[in-house]
Amino acid sequence: MAKKKTGSAAKESTFEEAMVGLEGIVRELEGAEIPLEKSLEIFEEGVRLSRFLNRKLNEAEKKVEILLEGEEGEKVPRPFDPESGTGEGEGDASDQGGLPF
What we know:
Elements: H1 7-12, H2 15-31, H3 36-67, E1 80-81, E2 86-87
Antiparallel strand pairs: 1-2
Helix pairs in contact: 2-3
């Protein structure tokens, strides 16, 4: 059974711990014959973990945007493009001295 964390405990866990917990919840809900009430409790915990993970990802995205700089060294927020490792509309990392920012 997945290790259950309540609301405040989920907020205190790391991204990785929350992800492991959510994966365990998904496996548990997919693979077991669980009574409805217990399934709802597990599902609610999964929703809490999912919201926590979403918040953490949004925070990381904002940090990446802050770190990207324009041609003159000014900070220009751009969405991060995981394909190229740079801000959208920018060349590859070699066009900028080998660094994506």
